[in-house]
Amino acid sequence: MAIYINDEEIRQLIRIEDAIEAVRGIMRDLAEGKACNCPRQRPRTTSTMLHVLCAAGERIGSLGLKAYTTRQDGNRFLFLLFSDKTGDCDAVIEADWLGRFRTGAASGVATRYLARPDAETVGIIGTGRHALTQLLAVCAVRQIKQAFVWSPTPEHRIRFAEENQEAVPISLKLCESAESLVRQSDILCTITKASTPVLKREWVQPGTHINAAGSNSLSRQEIDPETLRGADILVIDSIEQAKMECGDLFPLVQAGEKKWDDLIELSTVVSSGKSLREGSSQISIFESHGLGLWDIAVGKLIYDRACEAGVGTKLPF
Q1: Residues near 267 by Cβ (< 8 Å), separated by ≥ 6?
Q2: pTM, entire model
Q3: What is the pLDDT of residues 82-116, one digit of tens each?
Q4: CATH for the stretch 3-99+293-314
Q5: Strand, helix or coil at 48?
Q6: Longest Cα separation, the chain
Q7: Are the C-beta atoms of residues 58 and 84 closer than 8 Å to each other?
Q8: pLDDT tens-digit profile of 209-252?
Q9: CA distances (Å), 195 to each of 65, 101, 199, 295, in order?
Q10: Are 190 and 247 contacting, i.e. CB atoms less than 8 angstroms apart?
Q11: Which CATH architecture has domain 115-290?
């Protein structure tokens, strides 16, 4: 019998550290041929867009489908988890916080392998739904002493600090400009809906690692071309999905300056178990678009924890 798990229950069942290990494991599975991922599809009407991601993981014994709608009046998220052994639906999971956890976790995995070991400061550009888990994930894999926060709307960054300071193990410092934030940060997370770059190369300090997690549409662009051109290490979550969604990289590919097949996927990095960083001054970038594989990895973890704790509402099928 399937169970329904809501967002409030999810927040009680897992931590960002758990999600990081789940995403790291499923990316290793992908590299070893034990998992498969289907790029996001986006059918739409004049008022609503439906986003669909699906994936399967042999080791974890699950298949899954996340579907969510975006409209002017808000978003709705839902995830279905199926058993590999029976084909039955194990769980229907409210997927707003699932999505926040898995997106943050992917940045945590990338930071673990790509950022300098001695990185002590992190900057978050963007203060929307995903900003907190980006910050928590970086703090989970590095000994961060200071976090900087910026968004173009002062009220948004003030509200973010007021609502989340207790959840973060370090103090949050609000910045008046993106430039001041970038210049002070060893690790950067961009998580915006920007259509023009919010991060410029002349601000980026030697040795910086960047998690670019907002450009999952060809109409979005968070990082300027000069930063991408000058990166010593450039990793993406999926070449196949990047071709459809990476607004940051698409102009450089069109101009012949980058080739999709020359890019390194995160699964390859995780499978190697080694950092790609060869020096403390190298600049590294992780372009994150969001994979269905991350949803099934974190969704299966949530389901297992719910079963252990006796949490969830039984469904009539």
Answers
A1: 27, 28, 30, 31
A2: 0.97
A3: 999 999 999 999 999 999 999 999 999 999 999 99
A4: 3.30.1780.10
A5: coil
A6: 58
A7: yes
A8: 999 999 888 989 999 999 999 999 999 999 999 999 999 999 99
A9: 28, 24, 12, 26
A10: no
A11: 3-Layer(aba) Sandwich (3.40)
